[in-house]
Structures are given as C-alpha cells and as structure tokens.
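ok so I'm stuck.
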Amino acid sequence: MQADRATGAYRVYGYRWVVLAVFMLVNLAIQMLWISYAPITSLASKYYGVSSLAIGILAMTFMIAFIPLSLPAAWVIDTRGFRLAVGFGVVLMAVFGVARGLAGANYTLVLLSTIGIAIAQPFLLDAWTKVPANWFAQGERATAVGLVTLASMLGIAVGMVLTPILANAMSIASVQIVYGLFAAATAVAFLALARERPATPPCPPGMDERALMLDGLKHALTVKPFLVMLGVAFIVMSAFNGVTTWVEEIIKPRGFSSTEAGVMGGLMLIAGIIGAVVLSALSDRQGKRVRLMVIALVATVPGMLGVAFVSSILLLYAFAAVLGFFLVAVLPIGMQYSAEITNPTPEGTSNGLIQLCGQVSVVYVYVMAALRTSNGSFTVSLLLSAVLLVGCALAVSRLKDAGPAAARAGAVASVADRPVEELAVAVPAPPAGD
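replied:
not stuck anymore, here's the structure
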C-alpha cells in the first residue's frame, strides 16, 4: 500500500459503494429523527401538553446545536478521520433515539433526548464531502454528495409521510421507539462496514492533499466566491428548514389536514431526491457548477409561490414537488463547488462552514413563526423566501466555475477510459486504513 501511494498509483474500488451506502443510511436515519414531529405538530402538542412552538423547538434544536458544534466536528473529521467522527455521532444517535421513545409523554425528557441526537448531527453532516473525497474519483464526487443528499432527503420524506400514518395506529412515544431502533440498526451497519480510506488513492497525486484545518479555514474565508456560497447556503437552508419545520402550520389555514401536510412534505422531498441526483450527475458530466446552481435557484421561486398561495390540493402537491426538485439540488452542487474553489482547505472544513451557515437558518425558522398573520398564515415569510432566492440566483450568476475543473475532468476521463481490468471494480476484502 505504501509503495502504491509513494509511486502515485491510483484507482477506484468497488468497496466505495459499500462505504457510501452505510454513510447514506445513517444520514437517512438522523433526518427521520429530526423531522418526525413536523407533520404531526398539533397532535404532538396535545400528546405532550405543550404549545405548537414547543414542538417546533424539537426540530430547531438540531439547528441550534449545530452552530457551536460544526467547527469542532469538522476538526475531528479532518484530523482523526470521518470513520471515528461519524462513528461517535451514530452511537449518540442510536442511544438518544431509543431514549426519546422510552421517555413516553414526558416532554422534558423528550427534549433532553432530542438534544443528544442533535449533538450527533454535525459529525454526520460535516462529512458529506469528506467521504467522497477519500473514496471517489474527482468526477464522481458531486454525484456521491448528491447521493448522500438523496439519503438525507429520503429520511425526511419517510418521516413526513410515515409519521402521521404511524401516529394514527400507535402512540407518539411508540413511533419514536420504532425510529430509534431503526437508527440503532443503521449505526451498527456503519460501525461494522465503514472504512476510512482505500488502499490506494482514488485520484492523481496532489489532488488529495489538503492543508491543516486552521490554515484551511483562514484560506477559505479569503475566497470571495466561497463567502457568497455561505450566504446562499443560509438562504437555501432557511427556505428548506422553514417549509419542512412548519409544513402543517403553513397549509392548515387553507383547510388542509395533517395527512395532506405529510404527503405534501413527502412529495417535496422525493422530488428533491430526484433533483439532487439528476442535477448533481449533470454537473459532474458537464463539469459545470455555477450554471446549474443558477437554474435551480431561479426555478425554486414558482414552487415557493405555489406553496404560499394555491388552494387546490393537486396544485399544492405539484408546486411542492417543483420546489423540492430544485431547492434540494442546490446544496450538493454548492458543497462540491465550495470544496473545489477553496482547495487546499480540507473538505470537512469547507463542508462544515457551509453546513454551519445552513443551520444558522434556525433564526429564520423562528422569524417565520413571528411573521405569521393574525389568521396563522405564513404568506409573508414565504414571499420573503422567494425574494431572497432570487437574490441568491443573481449573486451566484456572477461567479465562475473553479479554474482547475477542466483539468480534473480530463484526469477523470483518463481513468474512465482505462480498461475495466485495470480498475478495482469488484468489492475487495475490507481495505487498509481503518
């Protein structure tokens, strides 16, 4: 293995898909735990004997905890490796996920357990670009980040659609036990199957070299396009977290039920899954990041306006799907773009900063509640979101793709053109580098 690294030999391993799959599973699980109260806000409010805002706080806790923990989590990922960092996070997720169900109808214990799950989240989210960087060729990385985004959105979609159904058949505490046990199973799978890196690097010499975290952090904050992307991450995640957190409350004044809210949220997220995969793959194929981000940001606006105003359930579903398809796709492309323009900043650091700005959106989620009209409508905040997304599109349109992107794409193409027998496409024995 050392000789291969010294001579610069590189190839991609089939085992990368195993590592990516278990990483996707734990991200799916933690998002289910995050969103599981949003589609049943009114029911949960009665069950725990608290206000709807107190139920909203269970979701906002994840964003609040992320703010102080994002950079420490990124430091652990960059210095100790994603396997240790994510492993720590999934153990917390499993323990507190089950504990939240065992807390029964005690809101205080549920909140404390939620805080435990929220502490785990940065150790998973900050590794979104690190896992692809360790295992995937340059031209596959946006696609790999898109697949992690897919899993994350699928977790939210499952939580949105399944929670109201389960809550009609069992107690809310029992629903949380089911979700907690599922999270524990995914944690075991990750701990058993994840590996830090393959025996040989997945890219040509030099592409996997990154600066130390502090130096990388200083460098990233001097890159003006990256600062723009931090602002875009805040707006995009504000829009996404706002709609998903208050989904039931947004459409309830127009006479829609909690079940319809769950279906709307689920459709939005399923469309988001498709958008993240399709547009990320297209971005890798074309070697273009900026153009696709601008298209996606512009296309979110009609979706947001539809969610704000339409009164037909079918039209509501259609506009929610449009919103999800384009809004969710911005994040994985933006993360990979940020990793490219901030090189040699470590992937965990650039990703951590993007995720941090996204999670600061908790402020906006709270503002959305404060801007509700007297009849409970979220129209004002949804219109504000549409305006801010237009501003993001204008700002991103002034950026340029990373200069070395074409060279990287050429290097990847040379790998793709090599005979199959020269590449390790079969799943080997667990690689070295634990």
